[in-house]
Design brief:
With 286 residues, this protein is an alpha+beta fold. Helices cover 45% and strands 7% of the residues. The strands form two sheets. A four-stranded antiparallel sheet has the order 3-4-6-5. A hairpin with a 6-residue loop joins strand 1 (161-163) and strand 2 (170-172). Helix 3 packs across helix 4 and helix 4 (173-190) packs across helix 6. The radius of gyration is 59 Å and the shape is rod-shaped. 21% of the residues are buried. The structure holds zinc ion.
Length: 286
């Protein structure tokens, strides 16, 4: 029995066909040597194992440090945002304050200039006021109060006219008072009254002068001389542009309400630097 049904040898049972690969479905092929490969991964080569052992595992502390550092950075950024906003607000406030300071400085300078101008005007008016006090004694009979007649041109009533000191030239009362003040100022500068040769002209006088010199003298009824609001300085002396007297007039006449019309100025359309007009009343012929 043992011979016929002898149990197979261990080798036959285990490896009936040693050296050949019998693939059993669902089973991994038996590797050479008869042992099945374990699930364990192949061990790394010795050199690799040594390297792994030599490389220390990263300790946890650096990771914690990174986290802490990140938290710190987040905190810093979170804290910095309001700081940056605060700095921006501070800068904006500083810029606004600087702009305000510039505006205040500009306004202050403007007011200072205006006050200087007012002071100069006040001083000149004070000088004019002193002259008015003197003039009032001279023009005591001149009635410049109330509305002044503006026409008819060349036909003003005698009551509307006043003679100015020195020359006896007549002007409308208000213009005569203003000129009297002016010539007091002129006298302070030059020690004499300005040389005047013409003031109010009646219609007949204007017609006669126009006929004699139509190119230079306005037709009757159209001149400010006919309203008692124009005056001619002596054409050969104080009426000469550029003379010291004329320069004084050019600088100070407006302080007394008198001015040289633009057409009569040197370089004007009809230069007559001797022809001055009383502009303060505002009712002259322009
Ligand atoms: Zn004139």
């Amino acid at each position: 029995m043992a011979g016929r049904h002898a149990a197979p040898t261990r080798a036959e049972t285990a490896t009936p066909h040693a050296g050949t690969d019998v693939v059993v479905p669902g089973r991994r092929p038996t590797p050479p040597g008869g042992r099945r490969a374990t699930k364990k991964p192949a061990r790394a080569p010795k050199s690799s194992r040594a390297t792994a052992r030599d490389t220390p595992r990263r300790p946890r502390r650096p990771r914690l440090r990174r986290i802490a550092l990140t938290l710190v950075l987040v905190a810093v950024v979170a804290g910095a945002v309001p700081v940056v906003r605060h700095v921006q607000q501070e800068r904006q406030a500083a810029a606004e304050a600087a702009a305000l300071a510039r505006a205040v400085t500009a306004e202050s300078e403007r007011r200072t200039r205006a006050e200087d101008s007012q002071l100069r005007t006040s001083r000149s008016l004070t000088a004019a006021g002193r002259a008015v006090a003197e003039r009032m004694k001279i023009l005591a009979d001149c009635d410049s109060g109330g509305d002044q007649p503006s026409g008819p041109n060349g036909r003003l009533p005698a009551s509307a006219l006043c003679a100015i000191p020195g020359s006896g030239i007549e002007l409308r009362a208000d213009a005569a008072e203003a000129w009297a003040s002016l010539q007091e100022g002129f006298k302070e500068a030059f020690g004499r009254y300005p040389c005047v040769n013409n003031g109010y002209r009646s219609y007949a006088q204007q017609a006669k002068m126009h006929a004699a010199n139509p190119g230079m003298v306005a037709p009757p009824g159209t001149s400010n001389h006919g309203l008692g609001l124009a005056l001619d300085l002596c054409t050969a002396s104080d009426g000469v542009a550029g003379s010291s007297a004329w320069d004084w007039m050019d600088a100070h006449a407006p302080e007394y309400g008198w001015a040289l019309p633009s057409w009569a100025r040197p370089g004007g359309s009809r230069p007559e630097p001797w022809h001055w007009e009383y502009v303060a009343s505002g009712d002259r012929v322009s």
